[in-house]
Amino acid sequence: MNVNYYLWEKEVNGVVLRIKLAISLIPFFLLLSSCSQNEEVMTNYPFLQKKDENITLLFSDDLFLHAEGNYYDALLDVKRRYPEKIRSFNIIHSSDRDLVRHYEIQEYPTLLVIHNNYITIRVEGSLNKSDILEALEEALIK
Q: Domain range spanning residue 127?
């Protein structure tokens, strides 16, 4: 009986060790996966490759077009007042699943301003123009 218990314990320890090893490798594989996805997105969307420039993305969905007018108005105001801060902006439709997934868009409209691959501004949902302007100016005019 002691021999059987010893063999069983050794087998259980081996399984536990394999599980621990597998769990410890998960973050490594997730990191590799996210790096390759990030590289793929950067390759497929050349406008995201601009360095030292604000990249402005407005994520749009046909069901929420009524809420986007305030975003357009705010962006045009900021572009008119500070042309060096926002040179252009890109409209990304909800059907562009790669970018929607990459930037984890859950709500429409969503406005992102990205600088050197970092999101510096994220504004989401149905907001009035003054709230959007305030968020943009607070982050862009430092």
A: 50-140
